Amino acid sequence: MTERRTVRMVTNGPIMVEGPVRVEMPSGEVVESDRFMVALCACKRSKTFPLCDTSHRRRVRAG
Ligand code: FES
C-alpha cells in the first residue's frame, strides 16, 4: 500500500510539502529540495520561487 503524503496549505502563506521534493516548472526548470519539510511559495513574491523565502510576511504598501 502506498503511503500518502501530507500537503498543508498555510493561510496567507506557503504550501507545506513533505520532502524531499522535485518541482518541475512550466519552463522545464527543475527545482529540488532534500529538506524534511518544504515550503512552496503560493504568493509568487519569493525571490527563490518556487520555494518560499518568507516574503509573504511583508506587508504591501497601500497607495
Ligand atoms: S508563500 Fe512565502 S514567499 Fe510566497
Automatic annotation (TrEMBL):
<feature type="domain" description="Iron-binding zinc finger CDGSH type">
    <location>
        <begin position="18"/>
        <end position="62"/>
    </location>
</feature>
<keyword id="KW-0001">2Fe-2S</keyword>
<keyword id="KW-0411">Iron-sulfur</keyword>
<protein>
    <submittedName>
        <fullName>Iron-binding zinc finger CDGSH type</fullName>
    </submittedName>
</protein>
<dbReference type="InterPro" id="IPR018967">
    <property type="entry name" value="FeS-contain_CDGSH-typ"/>
</dbReference>
<keyword id="KW-0479">Metal-binding</keyword>
<dbReference type="Pfam" id="PF09360">
    <property type="entry name" value="zf-CDGSH"/>
</dbReference>
<dbReference type="InterPro" id="IPR042216">
    <property type="entry name" value="MitoNEET_CISD"/>
</dbReference>
<keyword id="KW-0408">Iron</keyword>
